[in-house]
Request: fold
Amino acid sequence: MSSYTIKDLEQISGIKAHTIRIWEQRYNFLQPQRTETNIRSYSSDELKVILNVSLLNKYGYKISHIDKMTNADMEEKIMGLNQLDAEKERVVNALIKDMVSLNTQSFERQLDAYIVQKGIEKTINEIIFSFLERAGVLWITNHVNPAQEHLATNIVRQKIILGIEKLPSFYNTNINIVLFMPEGEYHEVGLLFVHFLLKQKGISVDYLGANVPIVDLKYLTNNKKVDYLYTHITAPIKGFKMNKFIEQLNVINPSIPIVISGQLAQEFKGTVPPQIHIKRTLGSTMDFLLGL
Reply:
C-alpha cells in the first residue's frame, strides 16, 4: 500500500502542511499513521480525501461543514461545482485518485470525456499539463509504485501523441529544434509535452526521443541545420552525472544553444558554458517556449 508524507499532500493539494496539521487536530477527516520517530504517514485513501477537501474548501465550503460529510457527500458536492476552474481541478484530482487506485479505465475515461467536450488541445493544455505538474512530485520522490506511474504515463503519452498528430503541420518560423533525452533517460512524457507546445507554435521539430547517444547528436548537427538542442531530464538511470553530461554536450557544436529542463535541471547547482541554458523553473521553461 502506498504511503505519502505531509509534504506530498502539500505539493499535490496546494494546502500548506501547517494548515493540514491544524485540520488534523480539529477535525476527523484525516487520521495519519505515525512512524516510531513520530513522522506522519498518509494512505492513498487519505490522499484522495485531502484532494476532495482542498477543492471544496477552495470553492466555498467551510472546513467544519466538510468534516461532517461522508466521502460520497464530498464527491456529490464536487460534481456539482460549476465554475470553469473548479471543473478543471476536479478532473485533475480525479486523474490523481485514479492513478493511485490503479483505475486505468476511469483514468482514460476522464481524459476522453474532456477531449470530447473541449478538444485534444485544450485537454493537453488545461488538464494534462496540470496533472503532470502535480503528479510529477510523487514520481520524482518515489512515493508512488512504478506500476502506478507507468500505467498513468502510458495513457497520457498516447493522448499527447494524438494531440501532436492532430496539430496542422505548418511552420511560421525558420527555427528548427532537436528534442532528445540523454542515454539512460526514458521518461518521455515531459519531452512530448514540449514537442506539442512547439508544434502548436508552428516551430519545426526533430524528435529523437529517449536514450540518445551524444555521437548521434554530433552527427545530426554536423549534417543538418539545427537552431537549438533541447533536452528534458526527469529521472535517468542510477549513476547519471549532470556535470559529465554537460561536458559531453559542450563539445557537440559551440554555436548551437542547448536548453536543459526537468527535475535534474532544477536541482543542478554547478556552472555551465555560455551556450547551455538551464531552465530551473517551470515558468522559465514556459517563457522560453512561448518566446520562440
Remarks:
- The chain has two domains: 3-165, 168-291.
